[in-house]
Amino acid sequence: MQITRLFLTRFLLILVLLVHTGILLAQSLQDIQNIKADELTDAQVEEIIRRAESSGLNEQQILSMARERGMPAGEIAKLQQRIVSIRSGRMPSGGSNQEGSSLERVVADGVQQPDSRERLREDTFRKLSYTQKKIFGFTLFHNRELNFNPSLSIPTPQNYVIGGGDQLLIDIYGASQQSYDVQVSPEGTILIPNVGSIQLSGATIAAVTARVKSALTKIYSGLAGPDPNTFMELRLGNIRTVSVAMVGELNKPGNYTLPSFASPFNALFVAGGPNENGSFRHIQLYRDNRLLQEIDVYDFLVSGRNTANIVLRDNDVIIVPPVRSRVELIGPVRREGLFEVKPGESLTDLLRFAGGFTSDAYQDRITVTRNTSTEMRVEDVSAAVFERFIPLDGDTYRIGKILDRYENRVQIAGALMRPGTYALQPGMTVSQLIEKSGGLREDAFVNRATIYRTKPDYSLEIVSVDIHAILDGTAEDVPLRREDVLNIPSRYDIREEYYIKISGEVNKPGAFAHGENMNVADAVLKAGGFKESASASQIEIVRRVKDDVSGKLAEIIYVNIDKDLKISGNGGETVLHPFDHIIVRKSPGFQQEQLVRVEGEVYYPGEYALVTVDERISDVVKRAGGLNQFAFARGATLIRKNEFYEAPTESEIKTKNLTSVKGNISRDSLEQTAYDRILLDRIDQKLFENEASGKGRNGTLLSAEFRKQTIQTISEQDSVVIEVKTQEMVGIDLEAILRNPRGPEDLILEEGDVLSIPKELQTVRMRGELLYPTTARYRPQASFRNYISRAGGFTDRSRKSRSYVIYANGDVRRTNRFLFFTFYPKIEPGAEIIVPRKPERQPLSAQSWIGLASSLATLAILVNNITR
Question: Domain ends where: 176, 210, 238?
Answer without folding.
Answer: 238
